[in-house]
Records
---
Amino acid sequence: MQILKWLNTNPHCFSFKVNNEGFYDTTIKRFRTRNNGSLRGVADLLGIWKSKPLAIEVKTKTGELSEYQILFLKRFKEKGGIAIKATSLEDLQTQLLQYDSQLV
């Protein structure tokens, strides 16, 4: 993943991919989450950017956030974190640059 590789080569960042995808249960013949205690909508990537919590939901250019993803990013931002929907590495870099410019 290009975004994750870039983040982890940046000296201002520590990040990792979150494995929160559901799986197909052949017994009940539907998708379900791995753990009943898991939180729905958790961002694809979590980490720290310049000492601030970071959550990134990676989508294609036409990809839409689910209601749970919107809520997660909203709550994350309300608690002081950086919450981003990124459609490409360039998109992420632009958003982080905008965030950094607000710190000055």
---
Amino acid sequence: MSFFDSEMVRAEVAHIAEMQEDIYQSVWKFASFDDTEKLRHVTLLQDLLEKQRVLYTRLSLSNDPEAKAMKENIITSAKQLGFPPDVDLGYVFSNMSSIIETMKKTIQEGS
């Protein structure tokens, strides 16, 4: 069975795509959001990041050629965004998580 034959994997990939779309649609409005909307947006970012981290880990553990290809696409995208070729994406996920947590705290303290 292929990695993507799993109903659970397909559902999770679809959910990640929906979450990304929701975030992308509102990212340009972030500055005009009130604190409640900002907190909702940042919490959604946090949830998305965690789902992406789990998916990336699952891709990394799979021997399926399609999973390996998707992982390589993610690494290529990271390089295109300016990350060094040898960057550990687990480290990137951790740093992003810390940044998002700081954003949440800043918003909550401003409320």
---
Amino acid sequence: MTPRVRTLLLVGAVNGLLYVLLSAFAAHGLKNIASAEQLAWFKTAAHYQGIHALALLATGVLLQQFAKTSFYVSGLLMLLGIVVFSGSLYAMALGAPRWFGAITPIGGVSLIAGWLYMLVGLMRTEIL
């Protein structure tokens, strides 16, 4: 296993773990102290983190199988997207200023770019 594959698999697993922990926190600890809007931000952040944790694992598997750089770039963009998109929403849900919401779309664009790079990688393999 290459260091790049290992990195993608590890960050995918860590993000999956964080998704479960943070979702449980939202359901049991945050629901009584946050506003409905803050709780919605937190749940959206966790939802996108969970989906992209699985996508990170997929990029690691695809990179291992096909050794296409686009899969590694896809994973890096998705990780950046998780940090910026979900991170800014988590921060606002926990009391950060609303201007944090201005950077949320940057994370969303990174997530979209990650999926685009995955698509490019898939189109360059013999499986499609």
---
Amino acid sequence: MKSILWLTIALTICQVASAADRSPSELRTEVLDAESALYRAVFDDCDADALAKLVAPELEFFHDKGGQVAKSGAEFVQAIRGSGANRRGGKEVRTRRELVAGSVAVHRMGHYGALAAGSHRFFHRPVGQAEVPTEHARFANLWRLDGDRWLLARVFSYEHMPSSTPPRAP
């Protein structure tokens, strides 16, 4: 029994250490890949099932306009599922998200994971019409490394400004 306990502890330590053991370029690549998958699931595909694989159960999402808009991964996934249904039903305008080139910084967060912070722009895409720029904002996403999977644990979406307002320098 003690052998199993020690083996479990050793495996847990190895998993936790894996976030800290990645090179800066490896960390950046992995986190930016997770970011791309996140925004593809939310905006491009409105795929709640794909999103569910990317979010931690303990996810919290904070937005400067709405405060805490999700208190769990399940709540966030359900909101995107509803939004996707509304988009497909013509009740909600599709939105495109565009990362501001060169704006993303990825920071190691010890053994926990990484923080990705940057700026992005949003566009409404009415069916049969040209897309319209709506706003730009900043984000800070905290990613937790769980084994070999990156899970979104915290989201801070802030400083939303109309597209007509020039972005503030970082």
